Amino acid sequence: MKPRQITFMAGLCVALLGFIGCRPEAVPVDSITLRPTEKELMVGTTYQIVASVLPADAPHEVEWSSSNATVATVSEAGVVTAVAVGECDITATAGDKSAVCHITVVDGTPSDPDVPVTGPFDNNGASTAVFSVEEGRTVHFSRGNLQYQASTEMWRFAEHQYDYMGSANRNISSDNTGWIDLFGWGTSGWNSGANAYQPWATSSTNSDYYPGGSLTNNLEGDYANGDWGVYNAISNGGGRPGMWRTLTNSELNYLLYSRAASSVGGHDNVRYAKAKVNNVLGLIIFPDVYSHPDGVAEPDNANTASATFNSYVLTASDWEQMETAGCIFLPAAGYRNGTSTDYVGSYGGYWTSTYYNEDGACNLFFMADAMELSFNIRSFGLSVRLVKD
After folding, report:
1. Nearest Cα to 99, choosing from 142, 141, 54?
2. pLDDT at residue 2 above 70?
3. I want to staple 208 with a disulfide (CB 3.0 to 4.6 A). Which of 96, 183, 195, 289 is the partner?
4. The dihedral formed by the CA atoms of 259, 314, 321 and 263, expressed in degrees to the nearest 10
5. 98 forms bridges with which residues in the sheet?
6. In the predicted model, what is the mean pLDDT of residues 147-169?
């Protein structure tokens, strides 16, 4: 071997040894948390537990175990299967850290997915009626507005479409035992890189709500987990992350202003109508295919943004029939600013997954004499109504 080659090889070996010797140590796991920390399941049902490991760049593999596999088992992915009545702990371990979710299994007959659904919502809380959001694409709406309880880290849909929490949102905090339903934009609980990402966030600084620290990021793609429905398991909405999502601004625009819909009361393509339903003000969204119930008044204010709520009044019985026929109702739940609530019962604001500018994100708003797609301050708490593809 020539001297120059020997010198080169020796230098290369030294460089490689130096590189190996300077290789950074693996980042240790600081913590692991589970969502939820307790859950009640019926025998025969399954549920996805979500594990979050910090720091995010710590290399890790989460290992799952059950304290009593005769009560509930858990898969390598954290999916719990309720086997028999009883209680057990599901433990997730990453590195030398662990976290526990307490499982209570109760008796009951879970819904059979093979049994045809005859009501307005299926076993996962999705509307049986469909709504077009672009040419050739439809979605199903959730059975009610999204709600959250911080003390149990549990998400659910409202029991009725016209339900909302109102002034209870003033109690927003990380340990609140009550339920809230007005959320800052992108506050799914996923650490996207935003300063304010938890559902109880009350920061008034709009830049704190930038997914990934950038104002132009939507709740899609790399930041889809910032969407409440993508990241979270909804307890009465199928119980698994990734089943739901928030509409984009363009989809909502198509839904309200462009899609073909049924004729009602002599009006063609009836897509929406402001209304007072069971004494609650809000917005009715009609499905693509709709047959109006006999004996129920027809709307004469359809597709009219300037109409008043009181121009179409429906009793609880009227609404039950229209809901069965496929209608969706968005209640005027007001909005939250920090720990105060305003215009509860007279103003409706619903987030989309689309950013607008440095201060705001796109939303649907409606009130007594107006309705439009616009934007609202990211730090404000608005309603969330999820859809399922």
Report:
1. 54
2. no
3. 195
4. -30
5. 93
6. 97
Q: Mind giving me the DSSP string for 240-293? A: STTS-BPPPHHHHHHHHHTS----BTTBSS--EEEEEETTEEEEEE--SS--PP
Q: Give the list of residues 6+ apart from residue 105 with CB closer than 8 angstroms, or none.
A: 40, 41, 42, 43, 71, 72, 82, 83, 84, 85, 86, 87, 88
> C-alpha distances in angstroms, 209 versus 187, 200, 298?
8, 12, 42
**Any residues with CB less than 8 A from the CB of 59 and at least 6 apart, and which?**
26, 27
Q: How far is CA 112 from the centre of its chain?
A: 24
Q: Calculate the alpha carbon distances from 131 to 250, 266, 332 in Å.
A: 14, 21, 21
Q: 39 pLDDT band (50/70/90 cuts)?
A: confident
Cis peptide bond prior to 36, omega within 30° of 0: yes
pLDDT in tens, 69-90: 999 999 988 889 999 999 999 9
**CA 321 – CA 304 distance, rounded (Å):** 23
Strand 387-388, strand 137-141: pairing: antiparallel
Q: Is the pLDDT of residue 47 over 60?
A: yes
Those residues whose C-beta lies under 8 Å from the C-beta of residue 346, and which sit 6 or more positions away, are: 281, 332, 334, 367, 368
Residue range 309-316: mean pLDDT, rounded:
97
pLDDT > 70 in the chain, percent: 90
Q: In what order do the strands lie in the sheet with 387-388?
A: 131-134, 137-141, 387-388
User: What is the token pair recorded at 138?
Assistant: 């439809």
Least confident of 73-82, 253-262, 349-358: 73-82
Quote the DSSP letter at residue 302. T
How close are the terminal C-alpha atoms of the chain, in Å? 67
Instruction: Quote the CA–CA distance of 116 and 204 in Å, as a whole number.
Output: 47
What is the spatial distance between Cα 239 and Cα 101, in angstroms, rounded to a whole number? 15
Q: In a 3-state reduction of DSSP, which class is residue 323? A: helix
DSSP string, 153-207: TEEEE-SSTT---GGGGGG-STT--S-B--B-TT-SS---S-S--STT-----GG
Task: Report d(CA 52, CA 61) in Å as an integer.
Answer: 11
